[in-house]
Design brief:
heterodimer, A: 85 residues, mainly alpha, 4 helices, 60% helix, B: mainly alpha, Serine Threonine Protein Phosphatase 5, Tetratricopeptide repeat
Chain lengths: 85, 146
């Protein structure tokens, strides 16, 4: 089917690699997970604080990455759905 | 609690993070959405966390590879794409990311091998995603004009 002359370009034309990233879930479903994600965030934060960054380098790095990820998700939920953070 | 007792718990905590498939998929979707909207920092942090908690989830490695490519960190992009293929060799998207990285880093032999694999799947009809086919053709053109 021909595209209208003045329609916006398709996603692939704008950024082929980005258009190649598979769609796997729905961000709209994240709001329902807010409580469990927040509980997980608190748990991971507590575990990370118990670690010694010098003695437990690898676990500390992993927990820090997970904690930062959850914080980004919760911040986004707070901004868009009024979730707790 | 002492650092020692925390360390005793680490084995089970790390191996079994307890995220559901739905949680992983939806968190990844926020990373992808952030990339689409130019929120690179958020996407990078989320993708980096996902590969720690779900290293067998190929799309998170692809998102990380994409971010590295945009940052012109091609060796890191290649490593992330290799991880994506390692955990899901059947994903044409993962293989195409790897091909793009291999061509960029100058490994034409390996890129040619993977291009052959994808080409065969397209010819046999096993791959029919138009974006995958368009991207394959673009990489084939890069390979042929090297």
């Amino acid at each position: 089917m021909r595209r209208p002359l003045f329609s916006a370009p398709d996603a692939f034309s704008l950024s082929p690699l980005l258009a190649l990233l598979p769609v796997k879930g729905r961000i709209g479903s994240l709001a329902a997970l807010t409580s469990s994600l927040y509980a997980r965030y608190e748990k991971v934060q507590a575990l990370r604080r118990e670690l010694n960054p010098e003695l437990d380098r690898d676990p500390y790095r992993r927990f820090s990455s997970e904690e930062a990820m959850l914080k980004q998700v919760l911040d986004w939920l707070t901004l868009h759905h009024g979730g707790r953070s | 609690m002492s650092g020692k007792s925390a360390r005793e718990r680490l084995g089970s905590e790390i191996v079994k993070r307890g995220y559901s498939d739905e949680e992983i998929a939806n968190i990844y979707e926020l990373a992808r959405f952030s990339l689409e909207n130019g929120d690179w920092r958020r996407a990078e942090v989320i993708a980096g966390g996902l590969v720690e908690v779900a290293p067998e989830f190929s799309p998170a490695w692809l998102a990380l590879s994409y971010i590295h490519i945009q940052n012109k960190e091609y060796d890191s992009a290649l490593q992330a794409a290799q991880q994506a293929v390692r955990v899901d060799h059947e994903s044409p998207q993962a293989v195409l990311f790897l091909i793009a990285c291999l061509l960029t880093t100058g490994d034409y032999n390996a890129a040619g091998t993977y291009l052959g694999e994808i080409g065969e799947k397209i010819e046999s009809g096993a791959i029919d995603d138009p974006n995958v086919i368009r991207f394959y053709r673009a990489q084939l053109a890069r390979f042929q004009s090297r």
